[in-house]
Amino acid sequence: xxxxxxxxxxxxxxxxxxxxxxxxxxxxxxxxxxxxxxxxxxxxxxxxxxxxxxxxxxxxxxxxxxxxxxxxxxxxxxxxxxxxxxxxxxxxxxxxxxxxxx
Length: 102
Description:
Layout lengths: L4 E8 L8 E6 L2 E6 L6 E6 L32 H11 L5 H7 L1
Parallel strand pairs: 1-4
Antiparallel strand pairs: 1-2, 2-3
């Protein structure tokens, strides 16, 4: 690898590999995950065999119900409240446009 990497995390344990690996990061992207990354880096961290994972983000969402009710503001605290809003405005109308907007 000839380019300068922003960060290399050495000796990391990751899901899917029995061996420790190095993780090279350039900008906000993972550039390489390999047994050994030999590159010039601005910063280096030794994970010392610790587990490294992506951020714990809950990406579960229901785009089919995004923006139900148009621009009207509503806040549901219970399932029943959410079902009432969906029943009132309908969730099938213009699903693609609402999902793209979300």
